[in-house]
Fold these 2 entries.
Entry 1:
Amino acid sequence: MDRSSHPRSRRIVPVVAAAAAALLVAGCSSSSGGKQAEESGNTVSAGKAGTPRMTVAMITHAAPGDTFWDTIRKGAEAAAAKDNVKLVYSSDANGPNQSNLVQNAIDQKVDGIAVTLAKPDAMKAVVAKAEQAGIPVVGFNTGVQDWKEQGLLEYFGQDESIAGEAFGRRLNEAGAKHTVCVIMEQGQVALEARCAGVKKTFGGKTEILYVNGTDMPSVKSTIIAKLKQDSSIDYVTTLGAPFAMTAIQSIADAGTKAKLATFDLNKDAVGAIKSGKIQWAIDQQPYLQGYLSIDSLWLYKTNGNYSGGGEAPVLTGPAFVDRSNVDKVAQFAAKGTR
């Protein structure tokens, strides 16, 4: 990308992309096999743009089968259906492999790329190649500390350090004394930032527990062993809804009175908040992240708009969901969009 034409090189008033609610979704292309993300009865059609067809690649670090990432994808597909965009979705948790997927998108001469920066060092060179090829690149979900340095057009997500700090303060309010923060992928910048934020503001003791996030039975047994080893742990902090659901089983099997709180939501976690098995969850609105990432590229391509003026991220969280407000979220979680 010509740096003289990059938005951050011009001082103009930023235009914030408008986000719609749930929209009619069409299927998308995918390296793992495209799929229909939403049932037609779960969405509201807002029509379809009459702008020329464009192709956008969404490339994430997600592992397959994670409901959180399914929600991001649904948001992306909703925006693609509205914007007359062909969405090509692919993912790989390995940094170099994810970088190769970005290179594939460059080779295919896509009109835009939406990417996560879970392993920013692995992505830096290939993101620069996309920009040099004149392909606009936006970041989302992971990489809030790195997107500007890497020259991305926009960023959509939550600041994980801020979210972690808010979580730590909430633990203080709950009277917690000792929490174990469960990280399912060592070195993943967003996850590390969450636990570091918790440790910064929580007045009690914070321990980090690394688990193998690709092996849920191992996650369960590792948490059980930790809880049995140290009975002073009164709160378990998980960093994803599927891991929270596993931690519920771990707490029960360990025979401890420890309570559980988590980052991120899915349908099962909402139910667990209702029943009191999860005290609260931080919601970063993954559907919105996926939607805005695609919609922003369409707006940039068709009208020159970009959010945050190339200087500030567009924050989608954090927000707490607990028993006081979970019913408001539950109706959307049942559709798989929260």
Note: The chain is about 40% helix and 15% strand.
Entry 2:
Amino acid sequence: MLLDFDRLGSWRWVLVSIGVLVVLFLLLPIIFIAALSFGDSQWLIFPPPGWTLHWYQQLFTDSTWIDALFNSAKVAVMVTILSVTLGLLASLALTRGKFVGRNALQTFCLTPMVLPVVVLAVALYAFFLRLGLNGTVTGFVLGHLVIALPFSIITISNSLGSFDISLEEAAQICGASPLQVKLRVTLPSIRLGLFAAAIFSFLVSWDEVVLSIFMASPTLRTLPVLIWSTLRQDLTPVIAAASTLLIGITVVMMLLVSLIKKGKSS
């Protein structure tokens, strides 16, 4: 039942106030960490006594941080490509296929979303340890792919579900082959869903820390893992700068998703 704000009267301001408090509760930690990354104190003091870009300069001149940033980006890009490709194939099978156990298969594909990440991380660690994939880029990609693939399947399946299949039938009547129909009709029609799936897959890999800790090695660490390990040793403002960079890229990606949804609805 939808609420009628015109009839709520004074209660409307109570609800608005609660909404503002919730937003502040969610955003204030992010604002604090961003402010600390520009503080000129070597300690994490809020509010900062002064402002500087020294910590960002130190971040981008330290090879350890640069390598971790490059590793995160490399793994996230590879996971994105694989997640969208496999998610598209799986979504086509789940939305168009008619076979026994389709619902069970769909539920199984979404299982990583409901499992505790630490349980999944321990299971993958034990499995990859036998295969010799721990501490390798392949291990990172496969591990992140497990948790990113459900997001692609959900997003692409929703796009395929709202797609008018009669367009494909019309293209086939005009003489197009099944492959041409998929490449020239289906994929362009669901391009927004594919792009949204790519963004979600990238963010899942980019921000993942629990599974990455199990996959990491002394010579191969992603940015979230390096932030975590550095945080356990020293509270340097460089951590705040790296965290702000991590949050900034995540926010930009989420804004892109919002713009995509807005463009799709208009």
Note: The first helix runs from residue 5 to 8.
